[in-house]
Amino acid sequence: MSTKFKDLYDRHIEMIQEEQRKNERLAIGTLCSYVPVEILHAFNILPVRLWGQSEDISQADALLQIYICPPARHIMALGLAGHYDFLDGIVHSYTCDATCGLFNIWCRNLKPKFSFLLSPPYIDIDEAIEYSLAEHRGFITALENFTKKRFSVDRLRRSINLYNEARAYIKEIYDVKHRGAPVSYLDIYYINLCLQVLPVEMLISLYQDYLLAAKEMVSKGSGKYRILLSGSVISDVDIMGLIEQRGGDIVVDDTCLGFRLVQDRINEDEDPLTALVKYYLRRPPCSSRADFPARKNHVLEMISLFDVDAVIFMHQKFCDPHLSDHPFLKKVLDEKGIPQMQLELEEEEGLTGQVQTRLESFFEILEGK
Amino acid sequence: MNVAGIDIGSITAKAAFLTDGKILGTRVTFTGYNPEQAGKKVFEDLLAELSMDAASIDRVVSTGYGRNSVKFADKAITEIICHGVGAHYLSPHVRSIIDVGGQDSKVIVVGTDGKVKDFVMNDKCAAGTGRFLEVMARALKVDLDNFGAISLKADKSLKISSICTVFAESEVISLISKGESREDIIAGIHESVASRVSTLANRVGVSDPIMMTGGVAKNIGVVKALEKKLGMSIEVSEFAQVNGAIGAAVMAMRL
Fold first, then answer.
1. Alpha-carbon distance A77 to A83, whole Å?
2. Regions of chain B short of the pLDDT cut 70
3. Distance, in angstroms, between A333 CA and closest chain B CA?
4. Topology of the domain comprising A9-154
């Protein structure tokens, strides 16, 4: 495993602050993968996905009940501990109730200078595009008022181009791994995560270099069980490490950080804002979008495209959207004879004895013991 | 060929020796704070009991939460697999195993060949485990070994939380101070464990014949309460508590 992208992620807070100081750029926190970072970038703003684990989650317990998913509570605890004090604002694109609640509680308690809540549509119909355009125009107006800068379509076009380029490289890294390059999923995880928290223009050449190096590696295949990792906010690298160590090779994911976000390209041949809203509306949905047929098709498509042997669901405790989806996806996989298991995580607790036993048992079952 | 299975649970460590596929002997001891020592002790005690020496054991497989601390084992295999294999060895027609141990409960579904098809484990919570019963036995000042027999004399089963051990303990203390009979309280405690475990069983799609294993299988009150909840009869082998160790020994034969 290369530590380059992990090191970058570990330093992202100081790097963003340095960029704020050096180039007088604003930094805005984003909640969920549906925030159109391209628009923030077009305003020369640094989008920073709120992500991570606090040392003391209990700080958030006075504001968020313990039946709220651990990632939301961790992010609130990070905010209360001053981890994100450098941010100039926060944007949430409404996905699930827990994150929307987090956004509102964050605004009430931490009082950011700028806050905006986008409400993306659920159904892909013409009216939804019109509605979404209006929502995004409202977001642009709010940013114009906050930054005192005019929105530029050309700048949005340029930002879209950069994100398309970065996503295309990441998509190709998945592809190179699929073709047998010995790329660890932990690398891919941090590669994806960096795009959520660091300036896109900084990452493109790094992605390009990584891809070139991966392509040069002898393709021999891992000989391991090819795993699809499905879930929401998955950040437990110890568990990913155990999956790889125990005989699994995570070849593709269905999470709010991974392949779903890089699979499609924003059309650069049409009006940039229209193309942008279509991308967010039409890309494979998160379970919070309540579109089970699309979720099912996406998961089955990934299984076929990446020759997946088994699926591991990693669900956050109390994550209603994913826990509602799971029984239906499980049924579909059972009917198709695709082995699957579910890990429900509490407070991102890591490799407890129970989690270890469940995972090891799953691989022992795959081995036919 | 002589083989050994060592199952290190949170409360007890178990050993089982097989010779040419037949059970030679089994032993149970408390795990205490050092699972490595407990594994060594239960193995050596069984050797001594059977007048054998370590060199006569050809292979050892360890299992249970402390499986990786058994340094002399040739291989560590999870308790899910070992309980499935152990139950199939003892009773090949069994299709589901309900294992309730000290710190967790699990339901395992096996195929006709004894291979595990699916399984489910409890959450990180003592409710529905042996630890829950231990806490209640302490609150009632009753020896846990007598719990099953006492509950069979109950007139009714009192309602006790199946969600939280701490809440359930304070409910039990309230019931004691109200003057409720010990028998009825214990029957309620068993029903509480059965509620929790049957939820797991229904989640994984339990089917009969069912075998119950683990230390809690020795408690007839829990077994009866579970049978009632599931509407199915449950087999309990004389080797229920050492089933995981037997499964580990069977796996050692296959190495």
1. 9
2. 124, 162
3. 13
4. Rossmann fold (3.40.50)
| All structural domains of chain B | 1-91+241-255 (3.30.420.40), 93-236 (3.30.420.40)
Query: Could B124 and A354 be called an inter-chain contact, meaning their C-beta atoms sit closer than 8 Å?
Result: yes
Q: How many CB pairs under 8 A join A and B?
A: 39
pLDDT value for A261 = 96
pTM for the model stands at 0.88
Give the closest of A349, A361, A368 to B80, CB-based: A361
Q: Which chain B residues have a beta carbon less than 8 Å from that of A357?
A: 65, 78-80, 121
Instruction: Report the percentage of chain A scoring pLDDT > 90.
Output: 75
Question: Could you report the per-residue pLDDT of B175-196, keeping only the tens digit for each?
Answer: 988 899 999 999 999 999 999 8
Locate the chain B residue with the closest alpha carbon to A347: B124
**pLDDT tens column, A182-213:** 899 999 999 999 999 999 999 999 999 999 99
A346 CB within 8 Å of a chain B CB: yes
Q: Do A369 and B80 touch (CB under 8 A)?
A: no
Torsion of CA A249, A255, A260, A261, to 10 degrees: -110
Residues of chain A with pLDDT under 50: none
- Whether the ipTM is more than 0.90: the answer is no
Residue B23 contacts A, CB cutoff 8 Å: no
Q: Which of A354, A361, A365 sits opposite B104 (nearest CB)?
A: A354
